Amino acid sequence: MNRRTRYANLLRNPVAAALMKRQIVTDLRSLQTDAQLHALIGANDSKLIDNAGRLAYITADAARACKLPDTSPDMRIVAGMAHALADLANHHGDRYLHRLAIQSGLLACERLLAECSPWAIGTAALKVDELINSAAGLTLHDITQPKVTA
């Protein structure tokens, strides 16, 4: 039995599917907690940028996969958080100037992720890992611009 067949059989198993959903939700909660802690009291800019940037991408990609409009106020707040993170990456030490934008973006992520399916969130998490490990890395454009599919 090849790997693809095993994976397909795993998804047909309701217990395995429930365990996978639970793992996705657990990992997401951990990422949200880390990002919120670093935004609130953290002094490590690179950790804040990493956690909040991952969460912004996962939120934007999952929301688009679930057909949530890019023009919604929460999606615009997430885009604003992405811009604040990009500015913070260029000017380390300015986290106090961007703290409110980042915190409101994290709250918008919570609201948007509540409307997304766990499968869309899991897929977005896999995509963000691929982007971060690619040569270009995760960019502001990846978060703020919708993907054009041909």
Précis, in short:
The protein has 150 residues and is mainly α. The chain has helices at 3-12, 14-40, 45-65, 73-90, 95-113, 118-133, 140-144.
How would you summarize the topology of this molecule?
Blueprint: H1 3-12, H2 14-40, H3 45-65, H4 73-90, H5 95-113, H6 118-133, H7 140-144
Helix pairs in contact: 2-3, 2-5, 2-6, 3-4, 3-5, 3-6, 4-5
Protein described:
- With 150 residues, the protein is mostly helical.
- The chain has one domain (3-144).
- The protein has seven helices and no strands.
- Helix 2 (14-40) packs antiparallel against helix 5 (95-113).
- It starts with a helix and ends in a 6-residue tail after the last helix.
- The relative contact order is 0.15.
- The mean pLDDT is 84.
Overall strand count: 0
Q: Quickly count the domains.
A: 1
Class by alpha and beta content:
mainly alpha
Give the helix tally. Answer: 7
- Beta-strand portion reads under 5%
Kindly state the percentage of residues in helix: over 70%
Average pLDDT across residues? 84
Radius of gyration based on Cα positions = 16 Å
Shape: globular
Give the CA-CA distance, first to last residue: 33 Å
Q: What low-confidence regions span 5 or more consecutive residues with pLDDT below 50?
A: none
Order of helices and strands: HHHHHHH
The biggest beta sheet is recorded as: none
